[in-house]
Design goal:
Oligomer: single chain
Order of helices and strands: HHEEHHEHEEEEEEEE
Strand content: 35-45%
Number of strands: 11
Shape: globular
Length: about 170
């Protein structure tokens, strides 16, 4: 398994992930970086404990930087999509979702690491269990709902134009 619940817990306890603004909470259908809610690591530790007690969905970005297996999966998807790929992990609680029905401008590959979830993709509901995965095409409406406590990875492509803003940075 490339990423498990104990790995997610380690990330939540990481000053590095906090300092790099990679941890989010999802409330009312919006993801907010925890640093904007808790301006010190100590306040974050107390605040995230409250968020967990309230069964708040938590998202962590940038896992491809810290986990070789996740980086390998990003590369496999890059070869398929011919676009850069990054990875977010979501921890959600039973009987909760994260976002309302929405579309992403890019492809999304979801893999359930632990637990179960249902995903409604353009009106068709699919149940995913631990080890299952699915690809959601770009611009297709979808929504996920956790039927149990659930850890999932979301790999998504994005466009990187490489265009320079030419703001005068020199080395």
């Amino acid at each position: 398994m490339m990423f498990a619940k104990n790995d997610f817990e380690s990330v939540l306890n990481s000053l590095e992930f906090y300092n790099n603004r990679l941890i989010y909470v999802i409330k009312d259908g919006k993801d907010t970086v925890v640093n904007d809610l808790y301006n010190t690591f100590n306040k974050y530790v107390e605040g995230i404990k409250e968020d967990i007690a309230l069964a708040t969905t938590i998202k962590v970005q940038g896992l491809e930087i810290y986990n070789g297996q996740i980086l390998d999966k990003c590369y496999q998807l890059y070869q398929k999509w011919q676009k850069p790929v990054d990875c977010h992990a979501y921890w959600g609680y039973a009987n909760n979702g994260s976002f309302e029905m929405h579309e992403d401008p890019y492809e999304v590959y979801i893999e359930v690491m632990e637990g179960n979830k249902k995903i409604n993709i353009d009106g068709v509901e699919t149940e995913l269990k631990s080890g299952d995965s699915i690809i959601i095409p770009a611009r297709v409406p979808h929504k996920a709902f956790n039927t149990t406590d659930c850890l999932s990875l979301s790999f998504s492509s994005f466009d990187f134009s490489g265009q320079s803003m030419n703001v005068g940075i020199k080395l």
